[in-house]
Amino acid sequence: MTDRPTVVRRAPGKLFIVGEYAVVEPGTPAILVAVDRYITVTVSGSASDEAVVVISSDLGPQKVRWHWQDDGRLGLDAADDEQGARSALAHVVSATEAVARLLAERGLPVPALGISVSSSLHDNGRKYGLGSSGAVTVATVAAVSAFCGLDLSLEERFRLALLATAELDPQGSGGDLAASTWGGWIAYQAPDRAFVLDLVRRRGVEEALRVPWPGFEVRRLPAPVGLSLEVGWTGNPASTATLVSGLHRRTWRGTESHRTFVRTSTELVRASITALEAGDTQGLLHQLRRARQELARLDEEIGLGIFTPELAALCDAAEGTGGAAKPSGAGGGDCGIALMDAEAPHDIAHVRKRWAAAGVLPLPVRPALEGIEE
Q: For the chain, which end, N or C, has fewer CB atoms within 10 Å of the first or last residue's CB respectively?
């Protein structure tokens, strides 16, 4: 058993403010905020030999033994796989494999690992829609790399996390990973994931951590002035990957309607960034309402089911008191957000009551100013 000290890292969840769906296109901007619900990953030495990684999670099977295979990936015994471990722990496994590949390229061994995952991004196993997959990927990369003695920058850890996620879902934007890594309010543009994956295949992980990624950009933004971020959970988990894949399977992508949606989203995100940086409260609320309208137009045209009755009620309640609201992320359930006048507590309380009456649970979450934490 290794005598390396145990490493603990936690990563916050996220909410999309504006720019979802369009952000999957490389170089197209979105605004996200990290929130103070966390995934915590603890990495310690394992009593097993160096060919074994033992992973446990409060969201899946306990203490599942994974074995390093000749192809550099982690494999399972059939009995463990039958418990659903491969699906439940896919992001933890992929993140661990990404770190192991970097170690191999540097000629360093992968020690025996014991990895434990705990989450406050779920309710009795049901996800809130606060980016649990992204948070667990970021936290796992940070914890495993630190345990193995790798001194990586924030951007290098983000890049490893995106490589791990793109192996599972190349359509994912990585915005959740960026919010969990940097924390606070951020402007984010996704890289060309096909380019990134091809780069890794041709030149390795080390090179992929160094060279520019087409389209990629992330920068911090100031928090909105005089506004309270209110979050409502519909109680219905939604699959972002399924909704985005459904959009891609349709013939809509590449059409004039698709190009118009991306252009409009880009324009309103940039206007939202300008409003945030200028402290323009009304300008930001206006752009958030535009974003709701654009998502509604997309939903009506494509029929994805972005707006559920609960999400529509959430938006109407907030707008009825002068705020602005929309689904956060892919919609279809999960969470909606509202920006409300922070100096109008009675209005906020009224909106929360209307949400509760519509079956929407107000979540006591706040922006997390920091990203990955020790």
A: C
Does residue 304 contact residue 297 with C-beta atoms inside 8 Å? no
Helix, strand, or coil here: 372? coil
Is residue 88 a contact partner of residue 162, using CB atoms and an 8 Å limit?
no
Q: Which two tokens stand for residue 108?
A: 């360093």
CA distances from 12 to 137, 150, 168 (A): 11, 22, 21
User: Are β-strands 52-57 and 113-119 bridged in parallel, bridged antiparallel, or unpaired?
Assistant: parallel
pTM above 0.85, yes or no: yes
24-269-359 Cα angle (round to 5): 80
pLDDT of 333 above 60: yes
- Three-state DSSP string of 26-84: CCCEEEEEEEEEEEEEEEEECCCCCCEEEEEECCCCCCEEEEECCCCCEEECHHHHCCC
d(CA 178, CA 12): 10
| Cα 357 to Cα 3: distance, rounded to the nearest angstrom | 54
Amino acid letter, 60: G
- Bridge partners of 76, per DSSP, are 66
- Whole-angstrom CA distances from 6 to 45, 57, 60, 209 are 7, 17, 22, 26
